[in-house]
Design brief:
about 500 residues; Rossmann fold; 8-stranded mixed β-sheet; 5-stranded mixed β-sheet; 18 helices; aa-tRNA-synth_II; aminoacyl-trna synthetase; aa-tRNA-synth_II/BPL/LPL; ligase; cytoplasm
């Protein structure tokens, strides 16, 4: 009889789910903190909803009534009994939970209700570069106002939020349009089927990636992409396809102002109908409000190709685009494109109450923006600062080491006692990998003399890089100093600060 090797699972993370260490978490937390400060200054209160919602409350990715798993991660609640319970799903954004919360608490909420939220969301979709199945979003929404100025305020606040997150002038732009423009085109062309209209909108949403030819195919019979996958088209009448094409290229003249884009759209030749005329009026009001809030033409542009893919948008829609040059891990240029967006969704709360409640909001992907900033070479500030490390030489002197690390912590300095069993060289390497600013050395000589040796790792790295000769490095010991034991805290603080 032979002993079989134990069955061991392979250590691996699921596709689209990432482990995040100090640098990534630091970057995301910094973005959330800075943007939250902007949102609160604009008068929005924080709200946190559960990770799980009942699947019917989410309402979007549910083509299979028996097992709703398309686009979301769902499970069946046992309801505390042996009978199968209702389906629950992890939230795919923060907007659908807000609609449920608003419907559930509408009588007690201040109206309009202004809230912001941040936290992880989950989407059961194909992952890719910068796209994850679990990622953080940060949202701000106004529920209960039908004024175009509410849309304009959300857009202007989005601009300030992106600046707070680390994007400078000319590094992002928010493009704005209105879904009613296409409603008018579809109405005029006799396209009444809701699925057909949504399929057409999703085709238009790919205009920046596929161009006019690719969108034309998706508006018609369909398109075979480079991977061999076939996407069914909207099968619009040829006259409607032609009207949509003319509409898409109507505002492509470089340098058009927001008002100029509206004029070009109005003169595109296609009949916009009542819905389209209402859209132009709303966009004109948004433009006036943005101008009054001193939001420049370079920060916010009107772009009739913006439609957004989600079904629940009913009016103004906006999309934030990253303009920074970005590269992948191999140094190749990569386009990040959209880093956030939003729009008006006046019918989402009505799913619960039967009464239309106007709402508008903006959301950006925290994880995606942090990844984009790193891809643009902007991640240097995200390096985490490790603790000061107290080196351990002898078990007999452990009390001295514990006293030193406790003294540093009591002074508000992050510090740790090395608790492995390696020698000094390995401990120094450990401190370097932790990103420690300094190490504290209390050897026998230091203890006997009432002193402490402190090695400034930052200064050591900088000066050692300029010393080519190994013997000179050993003689100079860059970044290392010996001080009285009572000066430990002051010396370490000076190094850190």
């Amino acid at each position: 009889m032979t002993d079989e090797a134990p069955l061991r699972p392979e250590a691996r993370a699921p596709r689209g789910f990432a482990d995040r260490r100090g640098r990534d978490l630091t970057a995301e937390r910094r973005i959330v903190a800075r943007v939250s400060e902007v949102y609160e200054r604009w008068g929005f209160e924080p709200l946190e909803t559960p990770a799980f919602e009942y699947a019917d409350a989410l309402g979007k990715f549910l083509p299979d009534a028996d097992r709703p798993n398309e686009g979301v991660f769902a499970l069946q609640d046992d309801a505390g009994s042996d009978e199968p319970g209702e389906w629950m799903a992890l939230r795919y954004d923060h907007t659908a939970p807000l609609a449920r919360f608003a419907a559930q608490n509408w009588e007690t909420l201040p109206k309009p209700f202004r809230r912001y939220a941040y936290g992880p969301v989950w989407r059961n979709e194909k992952p890719g570069p910068g796209r994850f199945r679990e990622f953080w979003q940060c949202d701000a929404d106004t529920v209960g106002s039908d004024r175009p100025e509410a849309d304009a305020e959300i857009i202007a606040m989005g601009c300030e939020g992106l600046r707070a997150a680390g994007l400078g002038d000319g590094q992002s732009v928010i493009r704005v349009s209105n879904r009613k423009l296409f409603d008018g085109l579809f109405d005029a062309g006799g396209v009444t089927d809701a699925v057909q209209r949504l399929t057409a909108l999703r085709a238009v949403d790919k205009y920046d990636r596929l161009g006019l030819e690719g969108v034309r195919a998706l508006l018609g019979e369909g398109r075979l992409d480079e991977s061999g996958d076939y996407t069914k088209g909207a099968r619009l009448p040829s006259a409607v396809i032609g009207a949509v094409e003319a509409f898409l290229v109507s505002a492509e003249t470089p340098g058009l102002s927001r008002a100029g884009v509206l004029d070009a759209v109005a003169k595109a030749g296609a009949s916009l109908g009542a819905a389209g005329e209402a859209a132009l009026a709303e966009l004109s009001a948004i433009d006036r409000a943005l101008t009054a809030m001193r939001v420049g033409e370079a920060e916010v542009k009107f772009d009739p190709t913006i439609v957004r893919g989600l079904e629940y948008y009913t009016g103004a829609v906006f999309e934030a685009e990253l303009l920074l040059d970005t590269k992948d891990d191999k140094g190749r240029a990569v386009r990040f494109g959209s880093i956030g967006g939003g729009g008006r969704y006046d019918d989402l709360v009505a799913r619960f109450t039967g009464q239309s409640v106007p709402a508008t909001g903006f959301s950006f992907g925290v994880s995606r923006l942090a990844s984009a900033l790193r891809a643009a070479g902007r991640g240097a500030d995200d390096a985490t600062r490790g603790p000061v490390v107290v080196i351990v030489f002898s078990e007999d002197d452990m009390q001295h080491y514990l006293d030193a690390v406790s003294e540093l912590r009591a002074a508000g300095i992050a510090a740790e006692l090395y608790l492995g069993r390696a020698g000094m060289k390995a401990q120094m390497k450990y401190a370097d990998r932790r990103g420690s600013p300094a190490v504290v050395i209390l050897g026998g000589d230091e203890l006997a003399a009432g002193e402490v040796t402190i090695k400034d790792l930052d200064a050591g790295r900088a000066r050692a890089a300029a010393i080519a000769d190994n013997e000179a490095w050993k003689a100079e010991r860059p970044g290392q100093q010996k001080v009285a034991r009572g000066d430990l805290v002051a010396t370490v603080r000076a190094i850190i600060e």
